[in-house]
Amino acid sequence: MERVNEADFEFRHGDHGPKYLLRGPRIEWGIIVFKPGQELGPHYHREVEETFYFLEGSPLMVVDGEEHRVCPGDAFRLEPPESHNIINDTDRDTRLIFIKTPYLPDDKVEMA
């Protein structure tokens, strides 16, 4: 068993970005906060399945070029090699949970 508490971890950029709660050996997951105007950046994974569960905000989710306006409570499961990006084009913060499996930290492929 492994137990963690979100308060024990920091966001990559102080008050926003990813915050990893569990990393490996088989799964990776955490929380992301996007401030207004921020985005994840378009990418895909070679082998990793990624799921996003939206807690707060209504950003734009782009999957293989198709745009989806998010509502809190929405979940998106993406299989490799579906390209994806999350764009917070709103005036409020977006907060979501991400889950990636299997744990392959070097599987992400950035897109231009």
Task: Give the arrangement of secondary structure elements.
Layout: E1 17-23, E2 28-34, E3 43-45, E4 49-56, E5 60-63, E6 66-69, E7 75-78, E8 84-87, E9 94-101, E10 108-110
Antiparallel strand pairs: 1-2, 2-9, 3-10, 4-7, 4-9, 5-6, 5-8
Descriptive account of the structure:
With 112 residues, this protein is mainly β. Strands 1-2-9-4-7 form a 5-stranded antiparallel sheet, with no helix packed on it. It contains no helices and 10 strands. It has a single domain (29-110), classed as Jelly Rolls. The protein has strands at 17-23, 28-34, 43-45, 49-56, 60-63, 66-69, 75-78, 84-87, 94-101, 108-110. It is globular, with a radius of gyration of 14 Å.
CATH homology superfamily: Jelly Rolls
CATH architecture annotation name: Sandwich
Helix content: under 10%
Number of strands: 10
Helix and strand composition category = mainly beta
User: Whole-number radius of gyration?
Assistant: 14 Å
SSE pattern, N- to C-terminal? EEEEEEEEEE
The CATH topology, please?
A: Jelly Rolls
- Across the major sheet, the strand order is 1-2-9-4-7
Report how far apart the termini are: 40 Å
CATH class: Mainly Beta
Poorly predicted segments: none
As a percent range, the share of strand residues is: over 45%
Please, what is the average pLDDT? 97
Number of domains: 1
Oligomer: single chain
Shape verdict = globular
